[in-house]
Amino acid sequence: MKPMTSFKALRLHAGDPEPERRIESLTLDDLGPGDVTIEVAYSSINYKDALASRGRNQIVRQYPRIGGIDLTGTVMTSSDARFSAGDEVVVHGFGIGVDHDGGHAQVARVPADWVLPLPRGISLFEGAVLGAAGYTAALSLHWMELNGLAPDRGPVLVNGATGGVASIAIDMFTQRGYRVTAMTGKTDAHDELKALGAAEVIGRRSADASSKPLEKGLWAGAVDSVGGAGLAWLTRTMLPDGVIAAFGNAGGAELATTVLPFILRGVRLIGINANSPMPLRREVWPKIAGDYRPAHLDRIAHVITLEQLPEHLDRMLEGRLRGRTVIRMKG
Ligand SMILES: NC(=O)c1ccc[n+]([C@@H]2O[C@H](COP(=O)([O-])OP(=O)(O)OC[C@H]3O[C@@H](n4cnc5c(N)ncnc54)[C@H](OP(=O)(O)O)[C@@H]3O)[C@@H](O)[C@H]2O)c1
Questions:
Q1: In the predicted model, is pLDDT for residue 1 greater than 60?
Q2: C-alpha span between 150 and 147 (Å, rounded)
Q3: How far, in Å, from the CA of 37 to the mean position of ligand 1?
């Protein structure tokens, strides 16, 4: 691979009241430390990137910082024997884009312990469409099935359905044999959600304050991007032994419910943290390439350039993105 002397990145700089975002030309000396230098093929936009780019939730505390919590690419150089030039890899979490320079650049440098060889059968593009979001969907499926979920137990509700994690979850769970109900706040998204495999599409529930701790049981499983009142409603409407994977707070961080769904229906509320240790990643990523493989990644992906990234980060915060927005770094 030919040496790259300079490359482009979107860097966040300290600013008041929020960080300044600059597309800059950098050299390898500008990057944080690491054993593996990667020519980034694709990165993506996750909700955390959008928050960080506007200085929300104190996600980034030290500037300058290249954002981007996931990337796929090809190893340029490695001082660690586990990797060689030309290897295709995927990196997400472990602090990239937060307290270590991340994927919103044409080159990244990270510790070898954070790098996962791209599973056989997944392209650099597919790996980025999946990224941290696809891993979150897969980790949800993994833990839900370990907690008793199976296609014959009943339908699975996926809320925040047009979101990145949710779009992949709809596809992944459908391919795995589940009957998926998609819940969305977008009235014009029903056809596209059905095209991903959703058997039915329902509207987002307004945040009601039901006085009933239990309502009619509807769902064997639920994939929750939303938190808040949406998650509280899920706890009330799960079938006996239903399993909820909760990883998001797009609709709120609070959770007002009672213990009754848990003690009378055996509902299982599982927390999902995609920033999981490497052994779990090594177990789950090959499943994404195999039994969990989604069928509609091309349909879920929207490809943009690095120059278009700032505008799209804002669009995510405004709820105007759908599916997965992938940044192509070359060209
Ligand atoms: N725990 C973890 O490790 C982990 C990993 C990945 C993501 N997350 C979190 O999971 C969530 C989803 O991430 P993402 O990248 O998929 O984000 P995203 O693409 O922005 O999707 C979020 C979706 O939630 C819905 N939504 C937005 N505001 C809402 C509101 N006020 N009430 C109800 N629904 C609302 C929207 O879908 P509709 O318009 O279709 O309803 C939106 O598309 C975020 O909170 C993110 O931080 C956590």
A1: no
A2: 9
A3: 31
Residue 282 lies in a domain: no
Ligand 1: residues whose CB is within 6 Å? 46-48, 132-133, 136, 160-166, 184-186, 204, 225-226, 230, 247-251, 272-275, 316, 319, 321
Residue count of the chain, please give it.
331
Distance CA 80, CA 113 (A): 9
pLDDT for the residue 206? 65
> 92 in the Ramachandran plot: left (φ > 0), alpha (ψ -120 to 50) or beta?
beta
**Whether the predicted pLDDT of 211 surpasses 80:** no
Look-up of token digits 């091309």:
298
Count of beta carbons in the 10 Å neighbourhood of residue 186: 15
> Best mutation site among 168, 171, 226 for ligand 1, i.e. most ligand atoms within 8 A of its Cβ?
226
pLDDT at 4: 76
Mean pLDDT of the chain: 96
User: How high is the pLDDT of residue 3?
Assistant: 61
Domain CATH code at residue 72:
3.90.180.10
Q: What is the DSSP letter of 18?
A: S
Residue ranges making up the domain that contains 161? 132-271
Helix (H) or strand (E) segment spanning residue 7: strand 7-13
- Among candidate residues 25, 16, 31, 115, the one with its CA nearest the CA of residue 65: 31
How much distance in Å is there from the Cα of 302 to the middle of ligand 1? Answer: 17
pLDDT of 58 above 70:
yes
- 5 band by pLDDT with thresholds 50, 70 and 90: confident
CATH of the domain at 246: 3.40.50.720
Q: Whose CA is nearest to atom 9 of ligand 1?
A: 248
